[in-house]
Amino acid sequence: MEDVRSRQSVRVEERETVEDRRLHPRVPANLPVLIMGAGRIVVGRTEDASEGGLAVAVTMPLPELPSDVMVALRLPTQGWSELEGEIVRREPAGGVTSLLGIRLRGADPATGPRERRRRVAGAERLARRRPAPKAGESDAFEAELRALATLVYEQALNEPRAKPLRSLVVWANQLRKELGVEPSDPASYRDFLQALAELHRCPGRHGARIRPDAA
Questions:
Q1: What is the average pLDDT value for the chain, to the nearest integer?
Q2: Phi, psi at residue 40, to the nearest 5°?
Q3: DSSP string, 50-74
Q4: Gyration radius (Cα) of the chain, Å
Q5: More confident position, 113 or 173
Q6: What is the largest CA-CA distance in the chain?
Q7: Reported confidence tier of residue 28, pLDDT bands at 50, 70, 90
Q8: Is the pTM of this model over 0.85?
Q9: What is the separation, in whole angstroms, between the first and last Cα of the chain?
């Protein structure tokens, strides 16, 4: 009887995780994370992120953390932010690395106009400092996509309905051009995140910057 309940619980958890992914598009993001629960603190980095959750890699065996945790994220232009979360998936990811799937609660905090202006200005500065492409290296494209997605993720987390910065949209369209994908003009950061998630799934991205017509 206990085994049946356990299998049913796993199926429910997997279904909720799939539904959560459909609702919130995931993008590659590389953010430092602290996961706190039951008197323990686990350090990790995000593999991908969405408005509703995170996939966090931790370089240790699967930690014995409770389901309900506090998650501290270090965002590029805002610094550390704390959110309540729930661990919905735990799995080994090879070697000593483990992967935690965390659903975030309250991921759309209310902020004043001064804080929003400061974050937007910071994102604008980072966009202007985008890394220069390295000819012949496809991983340079991946690095740029991850850097852009990290910035857009932060803005979508705090201002999902705001109009995206033009400089970030231009940056995204330069990456889309390298893949031969039509440019986009997202109306909000939430739409922007969806567009980047689709770009991340584009099968041709691994050949970017090594094709003759991408130079």
A1: 76
A2: -115, 150
A3: -SSEEEEEESSS-----SEEEEEEE
A4: 18
A5: 173
A6: 62
A7: very high
A8: no
A9: 62
Task: Give the residue carrying structure tokens 């323990």.
Answer: 40
Residue-wise pLDDT for 187-204, tens only, equals 999 999 999 998 888 876
Contact status, residue 74 vs residue 24, Cβ threshold 8 Å: no
| Separation CA 78–CA 138 (nearest Å) | 30
Distance of alpha carbon 206 from alpha carbon 139, whole angstroms: 8
- Calculate mean pLDDT across residues 109-117: 42
Q: How far is Cα 208 from Cα 174, in angstroms, rounded to an integer?
A: 11
DSSP string for 136-189: T-HHHHHHHHHHHHHHHHHHHHH-TTSPPPHHHHHHHHHHHHHTTPPP---SSH
